[in-house]
Amino acid sequence: HAAIAGVGAAIDYVASWGRGEDLRCRIVSAMRDIAAWEERLARRYAARVAAVPGVRVWGPPFGDGERAPTVSITVDGIGATDAARELGRAGIFVWDGHFYAARALEVLGIAERGLLRAGVLMYSTEEEVDRLAKGVERLACR
Average pLDDT, stretch 80-101? Predict the structure, then answer.
């Protein structure tokens, strides 16, 4: 029963971000707006770090259909685990590893160093994305 109450609260919360005369319209508009915000921020981050020498962005480009607002990168000269630790010391939290795609990373030749991954959410801000990009720029310029 607690799960039902939780789902109801989540639905109401998402709907509170939307517009429309009924619950369905508010949920649909909220999900569209949230997805657009997340994609805009993820695109911003991906474009910024793609322009940094020594940084490579992995995965499908934005604009080729729906995709998650996460961006995976490698930075020349630093493994993903070390990069994540260094960013973490600066208060920037990202993930590192193979993300259940170990074989894909083997085929790409990056299994040993792994990927550094960051994602944005509806709560993320432009300032946070810019801070993350600056942190990656500092890693690449060491």
Answer: 95
| Amino acid in the structure at residue 124 | S
Cα–Cα distance list, 72 to 18, 27, 28, 49 (Å): 30, 29, 28, 10
Structure tokens belonging to residue 136: 């990656």
Residue type, 118: A
- 1 pLDDT higher than 90: no
The residue written with tokens 């990069």 in the block is 83
Tokens representing 39 are 């994609």
DSSP 78: B
pTM: 0.90
Rounded to 5°, the CA angle 39-72-78 comes to: 145
- DSSP secondary structure string for all residues of 3-68: HHHHHHHHHHHHHHT--SSSHHHHHHHHHHHHHHHHHHHHHHHHHHHHTSTTEEEESPPTTSS---
pLDDT in tens, 26-81: 999 999 999 999 999 999 999 999 999 999 999 999 888 889 999 999 999 999 99
Q: How many residues does the chain have?
A: 142
